[in-house]
Amino acid sequence: MKFSVTIPAYKPYYLKECINSVLSQSYADFELIIVNDNSPFDIDSIINSFSDNRIRYYKNTIGFGTEKVVQNWNKCLDYALGDFIICMGDDDKLLPNFLKDLSVLINQYTKLDIFYSHTQLIDENSKVIKTFPLRPERESIYEMIRRRWNGGQMCIGDYCYRTSALKEKGGFYYLPFAWGSDAISAYEAAKNMGIANTSKPGFQYRVNSHSISSKSDNIEGKIQALKEERKWFEDFFKREAPTSKDQILLAQLRKMMHPHFVHMLSGDIIYGVGKHPIQGMKYWTTHREEVGLSMWELTKCFIHGIVGR
């Protein structure tokens, strides 16, 4: 069983540490694919500091940029030769047991297309901030969604996909700025058979000021991504669940969907109104129906945005 660990690279700040964590795996059969998205930084020097034949380095002549970053994820997928693929951020890290633990799980659940590595948050100094709650060894897609909507977190790099299945689906799910792409990609892979989860931390997601997900200034782009994400759920929830347990969960999720997306939208509205009150209120009043908010829901956001300034 061969893994393709891929890094769609742009930022230099933690890249060397990221690469070292991949090369330090206790599991031997893997390739490391790095795709430089036409970065203005000196990524070449970082890559050239390594001499390891497991590294395959490519450069995009024209960058996809932050809005279309998922396309660089899929460029990594195009180059992948392994049976299973991981796409991690250029600032994240793998613990040495990451691939080994996944291989054990894959050998146990041979029909699944997606696997998850127990995850930790680290800061800019690689200090562990938080270890995510332990997940059950097996989950259905409905359990995955409920956990996420109840405050669970998702990253792109803590999921391992069967390469052939991901390619058959057209690759990672595209949403602008990758907001929600990690979640929908995982749900697509888990639709029929669910997911298996490791019990030991193996992936480390770095919280830092350079991360795309930390940027809150592109409100319109994020709203567009949320609208497209909601449409995916609306379509998926039209399907009937296969088991009585999942049927109960599906009924709950259908009721949760509108409040969930109101909550997701509210944070962005409050942020925007807090920064630019008049401009923000005018924009959101005009776009209220487009994003499915009632006037009362919008008014509450305005109040929070102004009072919180």
Give a verbal description of the structure.
This protein has 309 residues and is of the alpha/beta class. 44% of the residues lie in helices and 18% in strands. Strands 1, 2, 3, 4, 5, 6, 7, 8, 9 and 10 form a ten-stranded mixed sheet that branches. The protein starts with a strand and ends with a helix. The mean pLDDT is 92.
Topology of helices and strands:
Layout: E1 3-9, H1 15-23, E2 30-36, H2 43-48, E3 55-59, H3 69-79, E4 84-87, E5 93-94, H4 98-108, E6 114-122, E7 128-131, E8 138-139, H5 141-149, E9 159-162, H6 163-168, H7 181-190, E10 195-206, H8 219-236, H9 244-275, H10 277-287, H11 295-307
Helix content: 40-55%
The largest sheet, given as strand count, sense and whether it forms a barrel, is: 10 strands, mixed
Proportion of strand residues: 15-25%
The helix/strand series, from N terminus to C terminus, equals: EHEHEHEEHEEEHEHHEHHHH
Shape: globular
What is the count of DSSP helices, taking H or I runs of 4+ residues?
Answer: 11
**Termini, distance in Å?**
54 Å
Radius of gyration: 20 Å
Question: Overall pLDDT, averaged?
Answer: 92
Structural class: alpha/beta
Number of strands: 10
List the uncertain runs. none
Write a compact overview of the structure shown.
44% of the residues lie in helices and 18% in strands.
